[in-house]
Amino acid sequence: MEEYHRHCDEVGFNADEAHNIVKECIDGVLGGEDYNYNNINQWTASIVEQSLTHLVKLGKAYKYIVTCAVVQRSAYGFHTASSCFWDTTSDGTCTVRWENRTMNCIVNVFAIAIVL
User: Fold this and answer.
1) What would the pLDDT profile of 99-114 be if each residue is shown by its tens digit?
2) Which domain holds residue 90?
3) Is there a contact between 5 and 105 (Cβ–Cβ < 8 Å)?
4) d(C-alpha 47, C-alpha 103), whole Å
5) CA of 30: how far to CAs of 19, 54, 82, 86, in Å?
6) Which of 27, 36, 53, 54 is most buried, with most CB under 10 Å away?
7) Contact 51, 24 (CB under 8 A)
């Protein structure tokens, strides 16, 4: 069973839209897969590249940073944190947590408005 957890800050960019894009990218890459150390580099690269491509295609005036981590599920859990110093009226972040029975994935999107 795959579960999704969402934490998106509603600011100047559409965090729900970003969440949906990232979720679809994760599903496309990891859906139906079991954890395999040999595939992690390919999986994480595909998730960040696909997510970034789809975000850029939205045509919005943002610079994006996308990070992805995939770890094997264990009794130890998986914890991350981030902090940003930016304009909260225009910049934003979205974190997507995804898991199945063998692995956890977390993707962070940071959107920084381009001021013209």
Assistant:
1) 999 999 999 999 999 9
2) 15-113
3) no
4) 15
5) 16, 17, 24, 32
6) 54
7) no
